[in-house]
Design a protein that fits this description.
By secondary structure, the protein is of the alpha+beta class. A hairpin with a 2-residue loop joins strand 5 and strand 6. It is elongated and about 80 Å long. About 35% of the residues lie in helices and about 15% in strands.
Length: about 190
């Protein structure tokens, strides 16, 4: 009788653990989809963009200022707001994205410029919560703050291969984000 009770309690505990894991995974998937498809509403493009005549959301402006302060000596240039007429779904015309160039536009980063880009991309990833980062693209990889499910193509904590979203050539230095670190904020 005791053995039956132990087996029964063990099965109940196992069932509860499985249900908890399924619920956690389901909420993670829902959060991941929501983050990618419909992020939180933005307060709007209300802050001046120091890189163009455009505007930024307050979160994007704060991210730009902190990133520039942190990496100014190794940062060749940066650009945030842009009309992006060829890609109206881009975060740039909404004032929610910045591109940071450790090297020359259109050239694959190498040597010290590549190292500076990785330092910047890792810093953005490590400080994603404080900076309100939604995603980072660098060296042909895209990393989402919301994370990925087990078994995804996440490599070394650096998301999945970036395919250009059907708009950009992922093999190109700029289209594949090999010459600049792209970062988008949630709001």
């Amino acid at each position: 009788m005791r053995t039956t009770r132990r087996v029964l309690l063990g099965l109940v505990a196992l069932t509860l653990a499985v249900l908890a894991a399924v619920a956690l995974l389901r909420f993670d998937v829902v959060g991941e989809v929501r983050e990618r498809v419909a992020p939180e509403p933005s307060p709007g493009c209300i802050a001046d963009d120091p890189t163009t005549a455009g505007c930024l959301t307050p979160a994007a402006r704060a991210l730009h200022d902190r990133t520039t302060a942190e990496f100014g000596p190794v940062l060749r240039s940066s650009s945030c707001w842009s009309e992006h007429a060829w890609n109206p779904s881009s975060d740039h015309p909404q004032g929610r994205a910045c591109d940071f160039f450790p090297g020359r536009y259109g050239e694959f980063a190498a040597g010290a410029e590549l190292d500076a880009g990785w330092a910047m991309a890792n810093w953005l990833r490590d400080n994603a919560a404080d900076l309100d980062v939604r995603y980072v693209i660098w060296q042909g990889r895209i990393w989402y703050r919301s994370g990925f499910r087990a078994g995804s193509t996440d490599r070394d904590g650096w998301g999945r291969p970036y395919d250009g979203g059907g708009v950009y050539d992922p093999e190109d230095a700029t289209g594949g984000h090999f010459d600049h670190v792209h970062v988008s904020v949630r709001r």
